[in-house]
Amino acid sequence: MPADERFAVRRDRARASVPRPLAAATAPSGVPLPDGLALRGRLATGARRPETPRGSGRGAPGSRPPRTGRGGGPRRTYERARRAWDRPLTAYYVILGSSLLITVLGLVMVYSASMIKALDISKPSTYFFGKQFLAAVIGGALMFVAARMPVKLHRALAYPILMVTVFLMVLVQVPGIGMSVNGNQNWLYLGGPFQLQPSEFGKLALILWGADLLARKQDKRLLTQWKHMLVPLVPVAFMLLGLIMLGGDMGTAIILTAILFGLLWLAGAPTRLFAGVLGAAAAIAFLLIRTSPNRMSRLACMGVSEPDPEGGCWQAAHGIYALASGGWFGSGLGASVEKWGQLPEPHTDFIFAITGEELGLAGTLSVLALFAALGYAGIRVAGRTEDPFVRFAAGGVTTWITAQAVINIGAVLGLLPIAGVPLPLFSYGGSALLPTMFAVGLMIAFAREDPAAKAALAMRKPGVRWKTMRRRVKKRPSGER
Q1: Helix (H) or strand (E) holding 179
Q2: For residue 66, what are the β-bridge partners?
Q3: How far apart are alpha carbons 341 and 117 in whole angstroms?
Q4: Which of 220, 275, 341, 347 has the most C-beta neighbours closer than 10 Å?
Q5: pLDDT tens-digit map of 65-100
Q6: What is the CA radius of gyration of the chain?
Q7: Spatial distance between the Cα atoms of 10 and 8, rounded to a whole number of angstroms
Q8: Over the range 153-173, which residues count as b (16 or more CB within 10 Å of their CB) and which as e?
Q9: CA quadruple 295, 296, 300, 306: dihedral positive or negative?
Q10: CB under 8 Å to 344, separation ≥6 — which residues?
Q11: Strand (E) positions, 205-268?
């Protein structure tokens, strides 16, 4: 074989032995590319890269979590809701919003439920609504003042409020001064159409005074002794209960007892001590119910679905009728049938039944959701504070509102005896609305006193926010911001 042919064969064998990724590539013009540009030339001409397994390497597409759609899925929704609930001002907004919504909806239902009652007593149809609206305006002012007051001022008012309340409750029992309404001697006549029930203010007085007392004892580390935990809290509470029971108001006495148990529970009362006080209260309640035919008849009306032939359990049965006829979305606002004389007290104790008849299950569930939100926000305020007074007072107010709502709604549903207590912030009655709105303002003040909430509220001021933005945003060379 000639030398030229042998050289060509060796050259072809050498080129064939070179690995394919490193082989010489040619440009589109046909000129061979250098060896160092062979791989780059293959990529430029559209050659495929060697495939690598997904998920290998940092930032690879396989290392990202799989997407669950545009909405993010239930878990992401739950995480967003949890982060929103953990914000510093959540409790502040929930307490303010839920209480105002309950009050406004209550005003609407008071007008709807009381117009027939007002016409029946030869009054304008807006008679009860006008009085409730005036009480709501005064209560709104009290709530605003209480929300702006510092915690120290609330503690300073505890003893004066207690003493004034006790004096008014004693004054109720004086013949010629106190008034009897529906068999209960618990009212003071203020002139004109206005009356006052001092026992409603006794709930607020017990909470403020008891919270201040327990907070001072906790600062001195005295709550580990049972005598300091009970005295003088329990004797003063029993004094208020005695003054209330002199007028025959069993419902208010039950709420006051619930507040006392709530304070003892928050103070860390031992189980046997708590059980002992609870047993004593249950024995006294049983004795009071057993010796009163009226209370025994109320207890016998639990769970009834129709009144007896002699007319007993009329109110309980017609409350169930009102709820049953409402359906899913009710008969319409103002279209209740039971308020036309069939259901006694449609605008006070049994306003929840009229709500179920006119707004249906949707309306009653909305009311329950608002009370649940208010109660949960109160628990959050009491659980996140470091101030013992704030913890006791917020827990006492939450116990008061939730216990009274449960007792009222339970009586309407036939699950509990009819105790004669109004639905907080919802039923007609200025004497019940004023202290309740002040107590809501108290919880708003406590929610504002949280350090994180203070910082968040300070950032909302226009001056602070503008200075913060100017400090964060730097001016560009072109002059644009």
Answers
A1: strand 178-181
A2: none
A3: 8
A4: 347
A5: 555 445 557 888 888 877 877 788 899 999 999 999
A6: 36
A7: 5
A8: ebbebbeebbeebbebbeebe
A9: negative
A10: 314, 315, 350
A11: none
